[in-house]
User: What shape does this take?
Amino acid sequence: MRPWVPAMKQTRTGSNQTPRRPRAIGLAAFAAASAVGILIGASAGTFSHAEGASYLSNDPRACVNCHVMRDHYDGWQKASHHAVATCNDCHVPQDIIGKYFTKADHGWRHSRGFTLNDFHEPIQIKESSRRVVLDNCVRCHQGMVDGISHAAVPGSAGVEAIDCIRCHARVAHGPRR
Assistant: This one.
């Protein structure tokens, strides 16, 4: 049995030539595979250099891989919450999907900000992260907040308006310098 050979195309000079289309497709596939390989390699290198796997843990030292978090980490070590809560206890949702989705989102935003040098210093909490922190305040301190009437707090409209951070901002990270 003879091996398959692509159809030959007769040129004006009479010489046989293989069609160009399969070769162009092969070059395009090679270029696409190379681009994907470079992207994966660069991503893996960045993940390794930034100690990305450490962010999957519950170790607060992972948060200081980035220098903009140093003051927050140092403040937390001196604050009352140091003995009872890690960064993840306050800053990520407690369900598994929400936790790792939030970690991925924070990792993306922090690495993009660091790489492009467009982060605010000192780092500031985003509204979505603020909501997570407030939910975790209420989760841990449910017994305390159940009996609090926030209707008496100026600008608040009841329990839905609980804003622990407004009055207790220094509890978790200690006093500002």
